[in-house]
Structures are given as structure tokens and as C-alpha cells.
Amino acid sequence: MEPIEHFLEYLEAGPRDPAGVFNPWRDHDERDGAPRSGMPKRRRENLAAYLEARSKSARVLLLGEAPSHRGCRFSGIAFCSETELLHKAPLVARRSLEPTSANAAEKPQRERSAFVIWDEIERAGAAHQVVLWNAFPWHPHGVQGVATNRKPRPREVADGGEAMRRLLACFSHKLSIFAVGRVAEAALVRWGAHECAGCIRHPAQGGEAKFREQFRTGVVSRVYFYPPWKIPAVPAILPRCAATRPSATATAERCASAC
Question: How far apart, in whole angstroms, are the C-alpha atoms of residue 121 and residue 73?
């Protein structure tokens, strides 16, 4: 079985505890287009095309928290809404991808964090060098219903570690992993299997300007084809993750201020 196929199979199976979780690659509901039962397969195909476009060119991975009810839930791709599928199609994959929401033709789903991240990726000319993913890959929702978001629980993040391992097997190069926000940073510490290149402020909740600054100063230098001994040092403006610090507790405030 090919790595991408192996990875998609794991995602489709879902987390160990599916309570309070919507699985974009298996589940469907009244918000999906017709035929509803076919939309999870379309999202799996979207993700496969996204990964295939980066399998040999990717150099950087931005790790977020979890999918939102407006982004990956409908596109199948982390930090990506239907708006990016339709309006930034050549950046997302090497072929056109399909939206899956019931109202996509009139009003495709959009997400502000996705807009900010893809805007910076496009500005850097690095669409196929950057991979976007989440510590908990499935959509965690609140008791109010599936059209809400919540922070993933620690045991859910633990399930994300196996998904991350399978994801990284899809690429021919080792990726520099940046945590986007403190949940992602904590996940890398918990998994203990991946070196963290730095911590970036999440663009949500007032973090857009800081994210843009840190992406430009700390991430873009890792995108291109530097030999390992020539990779520029991460600037001081971009804090290291707790996973790579001598003492995570002693210096936690450094990343808290940025993430």
C-alpha cells in the first residue's frame, strides 16, 4: 500500500473515541452537497491530490490545533476552506479540487485563518513547499452541535501522533516542523518524536499580524533547498518550541507570548 493511501485509510477510520468528533473523510450530514454519502470520498480525493502535489517538493510543515467547522471539514485539507479550493486552485493541487458543502456554488465556505495562511504562502511563492496539518486531524465540536469548534482533549491529541507519523511518510524529504499555536507545541512535546523548528503565533483571535511577521522571518528561510549545514538559524523573533528547549517550564513564557 502506498504511503498516501495508507494515511487516508487511517484518517477514514477515525480516532479511538469518536464522541464529539466529526470525521471529514468518513462522515456526512445535512450540510453536505448531493449525494451526501459521496462527499467524504471527495474530501479524501482532495487531500490525496494536495499531498501528491507536495510529496517530492515539501520542506516545511505548519502544525495547527484541529480542523474548524468551516475549513477542513468541507475541503478535506488542513487550514484550507472551499474558498481556497476555488480561488487558489493551482496553489492547492496540480488539478482542480471539488468543494463539498450544499451551498458551495452560491456561497462556498470560507475561514479567516485559512485566508491568512494561504496569502502568506502565495506571497512567498512556496505553495508546494509547505504542508499544512493539525495536531488532532479530525474536527472536534462542542455540545452545541457539529457547527461549532472546541479545543481537542489530551487523549485526542495522542491519537494525532500516529496520524502525524503516517503523514510524514508521504514525503521524500525530512520536513522542518513549526508549531502554530500552543496546542500544537504541546502536541509535539507530548509525542516526543519530532524536532520542532519553532513556535508561531496562530493567526486567529488577534494573531494575524504576528503570524505574518513570524512566517516571513522564521519559516520562509526553511522552505527552499538549503543543504542541512546551510539552513539559516531561526531568528530570535521566533521562539523555539518547548520540545527543543533545555527547560520547557523555565522558558514557557517565551513561546506563550508568541503563540
Answer: 21
Span 127-139, average pLDDT: 97
Residue with cell 508549531: 179
Specify burial of residue 231 (Cβ count, 10 A radius: 0-12, 13-18, 19+).
middle
Please tell me whether residue 113 adopts helix, strand or coil conformation: helix
What type of residue is 48? A
Average pLDDT of the chain to the nearest whole number = 89
The answer to whether the beta carbons of residues 73 and 59 sit under 8 Å apart is: no
In degrees, to the nearest 5, what angle opens at C-alpha 115 toward C-alphas 110 and 121?
145
The residue type found at 16 is R
What sign has the CA pseudo-torsion 9, 182, 68, 47? negative
**What are 192-206's pLDDT values in tens digits?**
999 999 999 999 999
Q: How far is CA 59 from the centre of its chain?
A: 14
Give the count of beta carbons closer than 10 Å to the beta carbon of residue 199: 30
Write down the pLDDT at residue 221: 83
Those residues whose C-beta lies under 8 Å from the C-beta of residue 99, and which sit 6 or more positions away, are: 33, 74, 75, 82, 85, 86, 108, 109
Closest CA to 58 of 175, 233, 178, 215: 175
Nearest partner of 30 among 146, 139, 148, 149, judged by Cα: 146
